[in-house]
Specification:
By secondary structure, the chain is of the alpha/beta class. Helices cover 36% and strands 22% of the residues. Strands 1-2-6-5-3-4-7 form a seven-stranded mixed β-sheet, with helices on both faces. α1 (20-34) runs parallel beside α2 (50-65), α3 crosses α5 (148-161) and α5 (148-161) packs across α6. The longest helix is centred in the first third of the chain and has 16 residues, at 50-65. The chain is globular. The two termini are 21 Å apart.
Amino acid sequence: MGKYFGTDGFRGEANEVLTVEHAFKVGRYIGWYYGQEHRARVVIGKDTRRSSYMFEYSLVAGLTASGADVCLLHVTTTPSVSYVTRTEDFDCGIMISASHNPFYDNGIKLINHKGHKMDADVEAKIDGEIPELPLAKKDQIGRTTDYSAGRNRYIGYLISLATRSFEGKKVGLDCANGSSSAIAKSVFEALQAKTYVINNQPDGTNINTNCGSTHIEVLQKYVVDNGLDIGFAYDGDADRCIAVDHRGNIIDGDKIMYVCGKYLKEQGKLNGNTVVTTVMSNMGLYKALEREGMRYEQTAVGDKYVAENMLA
């Protein structure tokens, strides 16, 4: 682990561990690093924490001072930043979020041009002693533009993934007062589900507070009390999801991987006939995969390591 960057970016209490000076420094370096041969293009998203706006402005200042052009997705999910970075020809994506942490924490997640977590060597350079970087001058100074259209394209992409209509299904969503508040309801309603939403009124301090994927009991009760068919609970930046069935039973990550793996295998789309897990997965998953004739691999905890294994 580096000085600041861990397996999931630079994270800590806002203005205590992670400061605006840190964000400015990250922006300065990223803008310079990707701008050595052409004007860098960077896209930024954020969650609903009060400090996310502060860090967004600090990053923008650093990036444009180094000559990068910046597009702002505003409040959006981490997966949407990955998607837009990859499909819209950006050099880098940045997500401002501390995921499932309390509101007073925040973080900076860096995403490379392929939509994956940033290469470790780039993060290591930011962690190190950065030399004095040149400031952009005159027309080389970067500019910032609104890019909410990118978030809308991501919503369209999610809708396109569905293999059937959800008409007649009653779906509950716990948005954790976070990023999915801006996206999830639109997706399920477009697929004709009757959608019931809770914890989608962010105020900057209520993200993850007694709600979302870290407090799944809230959604369990809501689904049962309202006679819903299924429920989905997200974390603050919506890169984590736990499901609940109509009886309130938890469908956790291991079960979701099993369902997705089995479906892909039946469709002939499970590459290498293999599901990649972390060491936190339980033995029941592995026995179920073996029963269905699927292989599995284990990585260290962290989606970064899972993605690396899948790519390899």
